[in-house]
Amino acid sequence: AQSVSQHNHHVILSEAASLELGCNYSYGGTVNLFWYVQYPGQHLQLLLKYFSGDPLVKGIKGFEAEFIKSKFSFNLRKPSVQWSDTAEYFCAVNACLARGNNDMRFGAGTRLTVKP
Amino acid sequence: ETGVTQSPTHLIKTRGQQVTLRCSSQSGHNTVSWYQQALGQGPQFIFQYYREEENGRGNFPPRFSGLQFPNYSSELNVNALELDDSALYLCASRSGTSAYNEQFFGPGTRLTVL
Fold this sequence. Notes:
The complex is a heterodimer.
Chain A: E1 3-5, E2 10-14, E3 19-21, E4 24-26, E5 31-38, E6 44-50, E7 56-58, E8 64-68, E9 73-78, E10 87-95, E11 104-106, E12 110-115
Parallel strand pairs in A: 2-12
Antiparallel strand pairs in A: 1-4, 3-9, 5-6, 5-10, 7-8, 8-9, 10-11, 10-12
Chain B: E1 5-7, E2 10-13, E3 19-24, E4 31-37, E5 44-50, E6 53-57, E7 64-68, E8 74-78, E9 87-94, E10 104-105, E11 109-113
Parallel strand pairs in B: 2-11
Antiparallel strand pairs in B: 1-3, 3-8, 4-5, 4-9, 5-6, 7-8, 9-10, 9-11
């Protein structure tokens, strides 16, 4: 069964610091990879996704993620965080199943606090 | 706002009772997925409905059941509630079943089982 691990439960950074949130998954087949964000009091929303092609994907608000197949990783990065990036971040994996892409597994989430 | 709405916002039930949660999908979306998010955890996939048929299910017992209506709105029913069912229940809608099409999440229903 596929699983997703996010190693950092809570990350605290100062504004302008660089961010990297780790995500590892376990699944031997082809996967689609996602990062979602949940700002305080708001819905879960998609930050970025990877299906195929260039392993470095760019998302909204200056975020990017790199898919490293050999490491089963999909780490999220941002060169310079802002106070408004304070949120919960979830990595998710969707196995490409024959019956349709309908089983999405989420990590436990990483809470990011950015201090002004 | 995503156009996906859920009701009620909060609900308190006692162990053994039954509960029904509702979700209205975003206009034009014919697929609804339900997730359970326990405190401090990520969402866990319960099941997905596509054009009124269940189209995939996660590792949840049969007392978790659902429906999808012709207007693509959906219900999640949980029978014989247990304390561990206390969680935030999220629904998400998308067009079709492919992960290529973004799914949009609702605000969730917070269920507390006493």
